[in-house]
């Protein structure tokens, strides 16, 4: 396994662990909803579990999986090493520490505010600090994606960007733009409020900032799913691509254009 593969695999393992724990909670929630008399069944525990489930699935599983998959598209689609791998690892650890902080706060019963953490529900400050760290860690991933793309572009000034990476790069840019909303909400509104530094909060502003991020959250799955479905799977199955990106001819604009399935060598990677 290469050093780059270790980076992506570490992210995917955290995603799988988050999914596994959250899926266990989901089972308990479903059984509780079916009115099964589980031990310690209570409304308090139910909402604690739903919060942990929502945070681990929607925020942690999504973020780590997409980060890991982004690195895979650098190595398999751009067919080059991750530029700024150290930054990638720094982002991984920052996001992991943030996840642990938020998860521990929820499990301690100090952060039962659901995954949307709408005020006036208030969590212990470590819930929001952990969420902020998760976002900051993911920004390191965005910058490693940008650095890798710039390095690839320098090496291939005339080539069209391979489609799998193109889709993941769009995902990274979308992530960077959308996470600004939740970062501002957490850092400017929620952390000072939960620390008692401010005494009032604007719930509507907080919700608006959350959903500035929350709605695009679905595209962090959707865009990579398109990338895999239209570009990776046909290739892996040995079939034809539905559409492909033509290599630029000398004098044409970098970035190229979409064309009909003409060139089987549309991707610079032998793998994809
Ligand atoms: C593994 C199968 C899953 C089961 C059986 C399941 C089940 C549940 C249940 C029972 C609830 C509580 C609903 C309520 O009481 O209102 C819930 C909430 C939720 N689930 Fe899942 N779920 C699963 C997978 C997922 C996945 C894959 C995601 C996202 C990637 C997800 C995201 C959420 C979110 C965001 C909430 C709302 C949490 C909140 O309000 O704070 N779930 N789920």
Structural descriptors:
single chain; 1% strand; mainly alpha; globular; 272 residues; Cytochrome C Oxidase, Chain A; two-stranded antiparallel sheet; binds protoporphyrin IX containing FE
Polypeptide structure, described:
By secondary structure, this protein is mostly helical. The protein has one domain (3-238): Cytochrome C Oxidase, Chain A, CATH 1.20.210. Helices cover 67% and strands 1% of the residues. It has seven helices and two strands. It has helices at residues 3-33, 43-78, 85-107, 125-155, 163-194, 203-214, 219-236, and strands spanning 244-245, 258-259. A two-stranded antiparallel ribbon has the order 1-2. It is globular, with a radius of gyration of 21 Å. The protein starts with a helix and ends in a 13-residue tail after the last strand. Protoporphyrin IX containing FE is lined by residues 23, 26, 29-30, 33, 50-51, 53-54, 57-58, 61-62, 114-115.
Under the CATH scheme, which architecture would be assigned?
Answer: Up-down Bundle
Class of secondary structure makeup: mainly alpha
Give the overall shape: globular
Ligands bound to this protein structure: protoporphyrin IX containing FE
**What are the secondary-structure elements, in order, as H or E?**
HHHHHHHEE
CATH class bucket: Mainly Alpha
Low-confidence segments: 252-270
So, the CATH homologous superfamily?
Cytochrome c oxidase-like, subunit I domain
Distance between the termini: 18 Å
Q: Averaging pLDDT over every residue, what do you get? A: 89
């Amino acid at each position: 396994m290469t050093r780059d593969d270790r980076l992506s695999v570490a992210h995917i393992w955290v995603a799988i662990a988050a999914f596994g724990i959250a899926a266990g909670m989901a089972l308990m929630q479903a059984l509780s909803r079916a009115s099964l008399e589980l031990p310690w069944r209570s409304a308090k525990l139910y909402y604690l579990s739903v919060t942990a489930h929502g945070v681990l699935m929607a925020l942690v599983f999504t973020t780590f999986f997409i980060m890991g998959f982004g690195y895979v598209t650098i190595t398999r689609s751009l067919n080059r090493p991750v530029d700024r791998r150290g930054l990638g690892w720094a982002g991984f650890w920052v996001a992991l520490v943030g996840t642990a902080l938020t998860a521990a706060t929820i499990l301690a019963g100090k952060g039962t505010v659901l995954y949307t953490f709408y005020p006036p529900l208030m969590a212990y400050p470590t819930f929001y600090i952990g969420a902020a760290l998760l976002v900051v860690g993911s920004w390191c991933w965005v910058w490693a994606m940008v650095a890798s793309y710039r390095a690839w572009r320098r090496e291939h000034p005339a080539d069209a960007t391979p489609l799998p990476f193109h889709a993941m790069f769009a995902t990274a840019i979308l992530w960077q733009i959308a996470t600004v909303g939740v970062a501002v909400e957490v850092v400017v509104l929620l952390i000072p409020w939960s620390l008692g530094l401010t005494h009032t909060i604007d719930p509507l502003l907080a919700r608006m900032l959350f959903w500035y991020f929350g709605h695009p959250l679905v595209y962090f799955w959707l865009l990579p799913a398109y990338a895999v479905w239209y570009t990776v799977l046909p290739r892996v199955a040995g079939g034809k691509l539905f559409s492909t990106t033509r290599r630029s001819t000398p004098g044409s604009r970098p970035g190229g254009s979409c064309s009909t399935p003409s060139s089987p060598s549309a991707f610079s990677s032998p793998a994809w």
